[in-house]
Write a structure and sequence with these properties.
The chain is mainly alpha-helical and 509 residues long. The chain has 19 helices and twelve strands. β9 (358-359) and β10 (365-366) form a beta hairpin.
C-alpha cells in the first residue's frame, strides 16, 4: 500500500535534544517548541497512546511517514539521495550560486556546519529513530490478537531505525547511538559513536528483524518492509563496511550471502523488470523495487518534489509540462556532461534518464541538461510537491550488480559476468566477454552502476566506498576550472552547528 502519512502537530525542531525527544510522538499527540509541551485538542497523551494494537499500527505508519516529510523539507529522497548524494557527485554541475543555495555549496564542497540541509538530514533521521524508539519501548506491553503481528511490527520498526542510522552514518560518520527514549538531558550527554559499534548495532538489528518480516504482502499492505528488503539492505550495509573507511574484509562474505538470498527469491518475491522504462512509472510502484519511499499525489502532503527539483516545467505543449511542477532553473543545477558521456552509443537508458534540451514556456529552445527519470507525462499536480512516483531506495538491479562486484573481488569474474550482462542487455548494449579480466570487469561494472542508477543517489556512495572519490572529483573540478580540491575528509559532512552547540561534538571523522 501507500503507507499513509499520519497528520502530526510536530513543529520544526532545531536542536539535538528536540530532534531526539520531541520526535517521539506522532498522530497529533505532542508539539515541541523549546521546552514547551502542548497537549493537543483531542487530549491524546504519551501515556494514553501506545496501548492498543491499532495504535501501534498507527505509530508504525508514523515511522514510515518520517521518510516523506513533503513540502520544503523534501523527505529522504530529496535530502539524502538527491542533495547529499547525487548533487555531491560529478553527476551534477552547480553553475550559478543564486542566493547561496545549499545545493551549490554541496556540489562545490563549500558546505559548512551551518549549511541548513545538513541540519535537516540530521533532524529528520533522528525523528524517525525517535518514532521507532518509542514504539519499540511500548510494544511489549500492548495485547495483540496475533503474536506474529507484534513481531512483524517490531521487526519493521527495528529495520527502519537501523536504516535511518545507516544514512546518518554515511553522511556524518560517527553519530550518537540512541536505542531507547531518553530525556533531553540524557540526549545532550550522549557522545558520537564509533563506526564499528554503529555497524554492529545496525547489522545485528536488521539480522534480528528478518524472522519477523513477511516475504510478500497483500495488495493493501504493499510497501512494507519484506525479508528481501532486509537482506538487500544488509547486502548494501556489509558491502559499504567492506570498503572505505572501515575496510572490514569479513563483511564482503556477509554481503554476498544476503545478496544471494534476494536473488534466490526472483520470480517469487522479487521481479526483474523487462524494460528500463517500466521502473519509473507510478503505476508500477511496489512492483519492481525492493524498498521504496512511498509517495501519493492529491494534495495530501505525501507526494515527492524530487522531479520538480531536477527538471523544468517545459513548454505548455510538452507532455511533461505541469504549471506547478518545477523548482528548476537551467542556470543553476544541471546534469554534467561527464555523466552523459559515460553512456555508450545506443544505451536505451539515456533518453529515459536525461533530457538535453526542451522548449521553454516562452516558446524558446533551452539547451539545459536535466534528469527526467522520475517525471511522468500527463501528470496533473495540486502543487510542485505532489509527484506520485515512489523513490527506489534499493532496486533489484542494485542487488545483482553488488553481487557481481563481490564475486569479481573474490576472483570469480566469469561467474559475475552474467549478472552484469543482464543489466547491459536490457539497456540494448553488447554483453561483455566471458573472458574479461577482473580489472576490466571492475571498470565496466563501475561505469554500469553510474549510468544504471543515475539520479538515484547511488553513485556518490560508490565513489566513497571504492575510495575513488578524491581522484574522480578533483579531476572533474580541474576539467571545469573549479577552484577546489578535496581529500577523504570531504567524504563526510560536518556535524550541524546546532548539535555542536547543544552537545559539544567535535568535527573529527
Amino acid at each position: 500500500m501507500k503507507i499513509n502519512k499520519i497528520n502530526t502537530s510536530l513543529l520544526q525542531m532545531k536542536s539535538l535534544t528536540k530532534a531526539l525527544i520531541c520526535g517521539t510522538m506522532m498522530l497529533g499527540m505532542l508539539s515541541c517548541e523549546d521546552d514547551l509541551m502542548l497537549e493537543p485538542e483531542n487530549n491524546i497523551t504519551q501515556n494514553s497512546f501506545y496501548t492498543t494494537e491499532l495504535q501501534i499500527q498507527q505509530a508504525l505508519s508514523g515511522v514510515y511517514s518520517a521518510m516523506v516529510n513533503a513540502s520544503s523539507r523534501g523527505g529522504y529522497d530529496v535530502n539524502f539521495y538527491l542533495l547529499a548524494s547525487e548533487v555531491r557527485s560529478n553527476n551534477f554541475n552547480a553553475i550559478s550560486q543564486n542566493g547561496n543555495r545549499d545545493y551549490y555549496a554541496i556540489n562545490r564542497f563549500q558546505d559548512t556546519s551551518s549549511t541548513e540541509e545538513m541540519e535537516i538530514l540530521w533532524e529528520d533521521a533522528y525523528q524517525q529513530i525517535s518514532y521507532a524508539n518509542m514504539l519499540l519501548s511500548r510494544i511489549d506491553a500492548v495485547p495483540f490478537s496475533d503474536p506474529a503481528m507484534r513481531e512483524q511490527y517490531r521487526s519493521e520498526a527495528r529495520f527502519l531505525r537501523s536504516y535511518a542510522y545507516f544514512e546518518l552514518m554515511r553522511s556524518f560518520g560517527k553519530v550518537p547511538l540512541i536505542d531507547h527514549p531518553v530525556s533531553p538531558e540524557e540526549a545532550a550527554a550522549i557522545p558520537r559513536t564509533d563506526l564499528a559499534t554503529l555497524y554492529n548495532f545496525i547489522t545485528s538489528e536488521i539480522e534480528a528483524s528478518i524472522a519477523g518480516l513477511k516475504d510478500v504482502y497483500n495488495a493493501a499492505n504493499k510497501g512494507r518492509i519484506t525479508k528481501s528488503a532486509a537482506h538487500a539492505m544488509l547486502g548494501r550495509i556489509y558491502l559499504t563496511g567492506s570498503g572505505f573507511p572501515l575496510n572490514n574484509s569479513s563483511y564482503a562474505a556477509k554481503a554476498k550471502d544476503h545478496l544471494f538470498a534476494v536473488i534466490q527469491g526472483e520470480g517469487q518475491f522479487v521481479t526483474f523488470a523487462p524494460n528500463y522504462a517500466d521502473l519509473f512509472k507510478s503505476a508500477n510502484d511496489n512492483k519492481y523495487h525492493i524498498f521504496e519511499i512511498q509517495h501519493i499525489s492529491g494534495g495530501l502532503s505525501q507526494g515527492s518534489y524530487l522531479p520538480s527539483y531536477v527538471s523544468p516545467n517545459f513548454g505548455s505543449a510538452d507532455p511533461y509540462y505541469n504549471p506547478q511542477g518545477s523548482l528548476y532553473s537551467s542556470a543553476e543545477l544541471g546534469v554534467s556532461q561527464s555523466l552523459i558521456d559515460t553512456y555508450e552509443p545506443g544505451d536505451l537508458r539515456l533518453p529515459l534518464t536525461i533530457k538535453t534540451s526542451f522548449i521553454a514556456t516562452n516558446g524558446q529552445p533551452d539547451q539545459a541538461k536535466f534528469f527526467v527519470k522520475f517525471r511522468e507525462k500527463g501528470i496533473v499536480l495540486t502543487n510542485r510537491y505532489d509527484w506520485p512516483i515512489n523513490f527506489p531506495v534499493i532496486r533489484y538491479e542494485d542487488v545483482l550488480l553488488m553481487y557481481a562486484e563481490v564475486l569479481n573481488n573474490q576472483g570469480a569474474t566469469s561467474t559475475a559476468v552474467p549478472y552484469l550482462n543482464r543489466i547491459r542487455q536490457r539497456a540494448g548494449l553488447t554483453p561483455v566477454s566471458a573472458s574479461i579480466s577482473a580489472a576490466d570487469f571492475t571498470t565496466a561494472l563501475r561505469k554500469e552502476r553510474r549510468v544504471e542508477f543515475a539520479g538515484e543517489g547511488v553513485y556518490w556512495h560508490d565513489l566513497v566506498r571504492w575510495n575513488t572519490g578524491v581522484t574522480v572529483i578533483n579531476q572533474a573540478a580541474a576539467a571545469l576550472n573549479y577552484n577546489f580540491t578535496i581529500t577523504t575528509n570531504d567524504y563526510l559532512y560536518q556535524v550541524p552547528l546546532s548539535q555542536i552547540q547543544v552537545a559539544g561534538y567535535d568535527q573529527n571523522p
